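Please, structure for the following, as tokens.
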Amino acid sequence: MRGIILAGGTGSTGSRAPVSHPLVPVFDKPMIYYPLATLMLAGIREVLVISTPDDGPAVQRLLRDGSHLGISIRHAVQAEPLGTAHALVLGAGFAGGLPVALALGDNLLHGPGVGPTLAAHTDPAGAHVFAHRVRNPGDYGVVELDRDGHALSIEEKPSRPRSDYAVPGLYFYDAAVVDVAAALRPRPGGRLEITDVNEAYRVRGQLRVTLLGPETAWLDTGTFDTLAAATQFVRTVEVQQGYKIGCIEEVAWRRGWIDDAALSTLGRDAGRTGYGQYLRLLAGNRRDHVVVELPAPRGTAARTAG
């Protein structure tokens, strides 16, 4: 599976922000680190990052080509805000006929079992999305489920939501998704909405939904309030528990994509910061002391946080 991150949106935080939206800090790291870490936790090593013309150069300087993380990162530009599903059209050549995971650049997922859960769905037959109970479902894409967990409906920001389950900004698709997205009829304003992609799969009977329980945190950082909440959440976890959320260097190291020397170099590159110190200390620890939860190799039991 290949991964696409749509980092082109500005949400409500970017209208007067003096820094590129994907680079806005969520506590101690740029926002773009969190969806990238999520894809890496799922075992995805080939990623396309789609940015705006203004943000693109800064994002490329930050993430480079990914070789320092043992992965491949390519970059593309979405010249106009044409919708989330438009990222699938832009990424058609990158997908190369393989399954695709699409992640929104301002979403954060964290919780026990997230890595193994995501890795289990990287070869979907159809589409696979997730559902998380929220207080304000009308602000998101909303999925209605029957008692067996099958999707009865899926709507984008409905005025009268049929359930309390919102769909986080992470979607797994089979190789056909590029054609599904290209065949969509744009909504008013010319946008291609990801909910319409999911609805197309639902009509075919090919949409699967996994519920994320209360132990999994999902934060959408698209507004000032939610950005502040995400920053406080990350700070609380990192200060109290001593490990980092969304640390792409750590994920790469624990998966064996980079070695101790490379991790130490990345720590030195981060300078005399708490983040750099954390990376340098990691390099002196055992790699199998799992702090980030990773999917186990096929045929073995999943490793858990320790």
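Residues 10-15, 296-306 have pLDDT under 50 and may be disordered. The first helix runs from residue 33 to 41.
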